[in-house]
Specification:
Number of strands: 0
CATH architecture: Up-down Bundle
Strand content: under 5%
Oligomer: single chain
Order of helices and strands: HHHHHH
Distance between the termini: 26 Å
CATH class: Mainly Alpha
CATH superfamily: Nucleotidyltransferases  domain 2
């Protein structure tokens, strides 16, 4: 039986989790670029997106099926049945809360005040640590 193919005709059977990880790494690079350019809340958004894609890749690899269409990192990790170490779990919960605010901002000035350089730098660093942990779970 030939591998399943995506809309572009690329083979994807058994490889989707690898694509999720490539995109997570790309998004993490983008977060760092945004941090360097002073686009702080967008850096936070990209951190969440990177973590989400890595978790969805892990979900696919562990369970052999696509992850639910959710942005909730805690829900996705729970669905896999793994629990991160306490520090990473707390960070993921914090990053999870930033998702909606940075994805659909109500007030840009408020977000700019909330996510300054120091806070965003800490979030970028925490996301890198979380991604390292996620990758070790494969």
């Amino acid at each position: 039986m030939p591998p399943s193919r995506n809309a572009e005709g690329d083979a994807v059977a058994g490889k989707r989790h690898e694509e999720w990880l490539k995109q997570a790494d790309y998004d993490m690079d983008t977060a760092e670029f945004m941090l360097g350019g002073g686009r702080y809340f967008y850096a936070v958004f990209m951190c969440h997106l990177a973590a989400e894609k890595a978790v969805k890749g892990l979900y696919q690899a562990k369970l052999g099926k696509p992850a639910p269409k959710s942005h909730n990192l805690v829900l996705l990790l729970s669905g896999i049945g793994i629990k991160p170490p306490e520090g990473i779990a707390k960070f993921v919960a914090r990053l999870n809360q930033a998702s909606v605010a940075t994805r659909y901002p109500d007030n840009i000035a408020a977000l700019q005040a909330r996510y300054g350089a120091a806070v965003t730098k800490a979030i970028v660093s925490g996301t890198k640590e979380a991604l390292e942990w996620i990758k070790k779970q494969f």
